[in-house]
Amino acid sequence: MKKYGLIAGFPLVLSLITGMMLGGCAGEEDGKLKVVTSTALIEHIIDRVGGDMVDVINIIPPAQCPGHFDVKPGDVQKLANAKIFLMHGWQGEQFTDELISSANNPDLEITVLNINGNWMTPTVQKQAADAVTEALAGADSANKAAYEALAAKYKSEIDAKGAEVQSRLSGENLGEVKVMCNEQIAGLVQWFGFDVAGVYGRPDSLTPQVVKELVDKARAEGVVLFIDNLQSGADAAKQMAEELQVGQVTITNFSGGYDGTGTWEKAIDYDVELLLNTLAKQQ
């Protein structure tokens, strides 16, 4: 992981100064609240509850693991021009401390969204929407009512999509399908209705001994599908699935992880299609 001090090196200084001169003026002219997010999970919600009142820029690409992100000079510039920075506070976001220091923006408001559970599940997505709305309203009280109205609309849409997906999956008997999945998506996989027999970590944690134990457990439990998390290692379980001659699929845990999944709803639909198509091929 690349690391930066308070402002390390002339190229970074030049980039930062240029960004402040250009980006700062733009923010004042359009009157929008300038927000930076650490992940696409937060960015997507801001798009929905912030509307035209917010100018949001995300840092970590949606298909990338936050724990393997390399800070770039342009990321420092983003924070130098922002009013508020929203982040998860995950262990994988340790780079943010130095990023914030390097931005040298005394007016930057930092909000850590301490929300437990998988953000792709409807319940947690609604909790996150409330937390994001509160943060935006706190930084821009003049538009508080507008943020709350958009949040209420979005939460209604979350409920509708959640009910639609559950209705579609209700006839698939997924409760009888034993799977193993990446630990980061266990909550989502369970919400889909699968019987999760075990979980595993990122590829760098899958030592030969760990793999053997997982394979033995999967065989004993009758696991028929391994579900990988795109952001934690797209093919982490491929070897185990091949050894057991069962299915393997990689779903996205962030909106925008795959092409055409730029919203929460589209990402959920995409994951469902991947899962059902993979199961169908095994029959």
Question: What are the defining features of this structure?
Answer:
disordered N terminus; Rossmann fold; 283 residues; 2 domains; 8 strands; 10 helices
Question: How would you summarize the topology of this molecule?
Answer:
Elements: H1 10-30, E1 33-37, H2 40-50, E2 54-58, H3 73-80, E3 84-87, H4 96-103, E4 109-112, H5 122-139, H6 144-169, E5 178-182, H7 186-192, E6 195-200, H8 208-221, E7 225-229, H9 238-244, E8 247-251, H10 264-282
Parallel strand pairs: 1-2, 1-3, 3-4, 5-6, 5-7, 7-8
Task: Describe the overall structure.
This protein is of the alpha/beta class and 283 residues long. The protein folds into 2 domains: 156 residues, 3-Layer(aba) Sandwich (Rossmann fold), CATH 3.40.50; 110 residues, Rossmann fold (3-Layer(aba) Sandwich), CATH 3.40.50. 49% of the residues lie in helices and 14% in strands. The chain is built from 10 helices and 8 strands. The strands form 2 sheets. The chain has a 4-stranded parallel sheet with strand order 2-1-3-4, with helices on one face. It is globular.
* Percentage of residues in DSSP E strands: 5-15%
Query: What is the general shape?
Result: globular
User: Biggest sheet: strands, sense, closure?
Assistant: 4 strands, parallel
| Major sheet: arrangement of strands | 2-1-3-4
Given this structure, which CATH class of the largest domain is correct? Alpha Beta
Low-confidence spans: 1-28
Rg, alpha carbons: 21 Å
Count of distinct structural domains: 2
CATH H-level superfamily of the largest domain: Nitrogenase molybdenum iron protein domain
Structural class: alpha/beta
Give the proportion of residues in helices.
40-55%
The residue-averaged pLDDT reads 87
